[in-house]
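Work through this:
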Amino acid sequence: MKDKKQLTLAFLSDVFNYGYTTTLWQGIIDTTHKMGFNCVSFSCPPQILKDQRLMYPFKLLEIINKGAADGIILSGGVLGNLLGSEGIKDVILSKITIPVINIGIELPGIPSLMADNYTGMFAVVEHLIVDHGLKNIAFIRGPADHSEETERFNAYRDCLEKHKIPFKEDYVSGHNDWGMSGRSKSAIKNFFDIKKLPIEALVTANDNLATSSMDELKSRGLKVPEDIRVTGFDNTYYTSLQCFNLTTCENPAYLMGCKSVELLDSLLKGDKLEDVYKFPATIIIRNSCGCSHFDASKISVISNSFKELKTGNTEEKIRIIARHLKKDLHISSKSYSNQEYIIEQMSSAFMKDMEFNENNLPAVIEDIISRYIKNSGEFSIIRNILSSIISIYHSLYPDVDDMLKIKEISDKATTKINEMLEMNLIDLNETLVTKSRSLDLIVYEIYSTLDLFRILDMFEHRLPSIGIQSCYFSLLDMVDSDYLRLLMAFNESETFVLPEEGEKYIATELIPDKYLNKDKPFSLLIESLIVNNEEKGFIIFDSKTIEDFTFYHVNIQISTSLQSALLIKKLRQTMGGIIYVMVQTIESRDPYTAGHQKQVADLARCIAQEMHLPAEKIEGIRIAASIHDIGKISIPAEILSKPSLLSEPEFNLIKTHAKSGFEILKNIDFLWPVAEIVYQHHEKINGSGYPRGLTGDKMLIEAKILAVADVVEAMSSHRPYRPALGVEKALNEIEKNKGILFDANVVDACVYLFREKGFQFK
């Protein structure tokens, strides 16, 4: 086994763009850094795995198994949404040979970490029944055959039974995907319009279903919680921003992420582990169930036994309250390390406001949010601590006057939290708008070309402007798939110059040492590039330098554009082979013009570059010029190689080659108007050319360039019926006919290439 500081742990989940996965991921990253381990994360969308035609991500798993990582943490719960436990074993675990820790679903023989969904959901339903006196409680279900959803539903049903409330199937919706808002709409329509049930509360299997249900209720003119109560489950970061008054359960994803790293370390050391580790899901009560923020007597999460605090000085009371909160208050968040400080500050401010009629708490909350909460968006931390402090004070000060004072302090604190949250949402929206605009510009640039190397060049220059500070791009080596070829590499301090063919290295390195500082722990996020259902390479990010929004949106564009570029590259390689055969066929029948098309293609490409045409047009010109005489296949060889001047009938026959070339090429699905360029390459801008007598306004710029290049190369080269006339005579000819037969800009660019830049035919 490697030295502890050199351990690399892999994390396999689905897409990294929503609350549960990103929270789990954050816990894993934080703990690997804390323990001095490396972290390699990669996604495996279950929808793709369900398609048996795809081999993704088995090549990446193979690389992980061969030494890229020492052990793997599997997000089995989310991958099991479509695959189920048997599917995970057959499709994923069968490909993994290194030690595994699993999260979110029980897999026999593999240590598994699971949330205690049952206890959390039971507490939510019991709160509605006991504290609010509700009986007509409906349930909107999540995905079928998902263990976490089943736990949550069973808790709902069992809680009704415990409190002697009949369980009715009519009050339960069909199964929904976790994030499908349309399904919530369908469930509510069924409850209210078809069955016309007297529902008092909607319990939903997760927060996404809860927020979409609240939107649907609002569209019907129903208010939450005045007309109907709604609860969720998970308390994700994104949901708390969209609906910060939602009563829900805190899914212990962050803590499970942290613990999974510790357990995998123990497993690698040879320690014996338990089969299942359970983590509590904690009820978080806000407004959507009908509770107010100061109604803490109903929502206390700690013991109601602080009567002894009525005596003693203020500082002693603060210490005792803070100590109890630190011990008993369960908060899992990215800001977990700041929790003790936040508790102390808020406890002290609340006590002083209570005992000395001061107004410290709002200012303290504003300072805490500005310093610790704003960037993470974890406003639930403040709400939970405030609710718990109020719970203690309800037991300490039960008198009516004291209760009114508690309410007054609570209201001011809640107002400040809401103000700060609103400001944060405004700032967040402005940030998203700014990044969206920057991303739009990048996307526009990306889709202006299909050239792989131009796209990679754009990434190097543009991605840092939207927060992507480190990015690497590698393709699988075409000869030996145990190797990768690094084509792009940049980090926060340097952009590396690589050879055009890329730098070859062993795949298990993921990134060569010299481009990534492996003397300290690293954290990489790897996305596979799929072309024609096969992994062709990987985009690799330093996950410490990216944000959820940026990564989610940019990764889509990067993957799409690179996949398109790789596909185009493959098509070009295939097409290059076809074009090569065409050229060889033409030149075998006309040996005197051997190399003519290649020379014309080279000059035409350089003229187009000198005129600063788009890369795609330049490539189209090169392709068309390479086969512009393909139509000569239909002309007898003796005419093509005749050593004397052609007769008029013979020349008229030669003139048919442009149309013949068009007929040959028109049904080939090129990426450029190759057939039309070939058709026009003997036209002249004054309409005196052939075969259609087009004028300049009807000609493609590509054809205008090809016409000049063709004339210059033909005059400069030897022909059977005459010796070479030389480049100068050719240039004089096109200059004499500039603006008459040939496009003036094209002529100027061509002359400049030869006389100023020293262009020569090879």
Notes: The longest helix spans residues 400-446.
